[in-house]
Amino acid sequence: MARWRRSPEKERDELWEFSLLATIGVVLVLLVAFLMLLEISVKDPEYRWILFLLLLVIAGLILIYMVFPRQARGLEYVYQEPEVSGSVGKVDTEATNYARALEGNPYSQMMVLKELREVALRRIMLNRHFSRVEAKALASSAKDLKQVVQDPDIIWLLASDFDYEYGVDNLSSRMGREMVANFTNIYLSLLRKVEDLR
Questions:
Q1: 168 φψ region: left (φ > 0), alpha (ψ -120 to 50), beta (else)
Q2: Do the beta carbons of residue 109 and residue 101 sit within 8 Å?
Q3: 153 with 189: CB under 8 angstroms?
Q4: How open is the CA angle 12-13-16, to the nearest 5 degrees?
């Protein structure tokens, strides 16, 4: 059975608070005891009043000493960035993919085009009120796609098999090399057209 355990820092803080309260209690008890002794031993009201104020000042100084935070000399607070553990976030991964795609990495280009195709598909679903299944079926048929989308570049984006387009055999051809080299222009043009998609 799992049990909650308190951290050592919390236990240390609680112990310090308890010891502080105990010290305050002891100081107050001693103060009352001294006041009673003062009442009995000192008959002159002026001296009694001066001694009473002196006791209050001493008790106050003891309490201030107990409560005042202690500073370690020579130690400075240094801010340390939290270490990222585990996997990198989706946004970082996508940003890295875009940067590598623009640098000419074929795999990143393929992933970025797939992501853009997904965005285009969602826009068609929203604008035409298609279900996901209908939109996927539309993207798999170039003939049906031409009836809904008139732009040949968007048709290419939706109908292309990018795993095949970026396959080793195609990338080694002249057209494949041109596709990788001209990716930035192709992508920016497609991005504008997807944004204008109605």
A1: alpha
A2: yes
A3: yes
A4: 85
User: In terms of Cα–Cα distance, which of 113, 97, 123 is closest to 164?
Assistant: 113
For residue 83, pLDDT over 50 is answered with yes
d(CA 11, CA 19) in angstroms, rounded, equals 12
Query: Does residue 190 carry a pLDDT above 50?
Result: yes
SS (H, E, C) 121-136: HHHHHHHHCCCHHHHH
| Rounded distance between C-alpha atoms, residue 87 and residue 103, angstroms | 24
Query: Quick check: 145 and 155 in contact, CB under 8 A?
Result: yes
Is the pLDDT at 186 greater than 50? The verdict is yes
Query: Which of 6-10, 23-27, 76-80, 82-86 shows the highest mean pLDDT?
Result: 23-27
* Cα–Cα distances in angstroms (integers) from residue 42 to residues 23, 30, 46, 59, 94, in the given order: 27, 17, 9, 20, 84
Q: What is the pLDDT of residue 79?
A: 46
